[in-house]
Amino acid sequence: MRSRYVLSLITLTVAFITLIAVVAVFFVAMLWPVSQSNWRNVILFSELRNGKPVQPDFINDVTPVYIVKIDDEIKAFSRYAPFVSRCLLIWNEDRKIFADTCGGVQFDIRGEYVGDPAERTLDRHPVRVIDGWVQVETSTTIRGRNLW
Fold first, then answer.
1. What is the model's pTM?
2. Which residues make Cβ contacts (< 8 Å) with residue 134, sequence separation at least 6?
3. Strand, helix or coil for residue 62
4. What would the CATH number be for the domain defined by 39-137?
């Protein structure tokens, strides 16, 4: 009789500890910050040409970007003007500049300010090359450098 009581007590103790552990894991999972990285393959590295911005079609509906290769460096610039959230930038091939469609602010191929008033350089996104693909992290925006 006593051994049954001890066995029941051990079983209840193990069940209680298991329940506490499950609840603790649940609350830790709810409070733990989750990384929301969103790397996307946007273009094959071999398709990039030095000094020729590319606007990948299949990423435009999510985060419009220009991919730029300058020597061995790759940048992913936001297509939005850095001070007006919904004014798109267009690449002017003849003048080799990005121009704001709303106010005419201009930036060079490196994202640096070249004309009309601007608060900062172009915003960009983290970029990397994996297995020949240029990948852009679309959920992170790196704010451009303040000009004043």
1. 0.71
2. 41, 42, 43, 44, 45, 48, 67, 74, 76, 127, 128
3. coil
4. 2.102.10.10
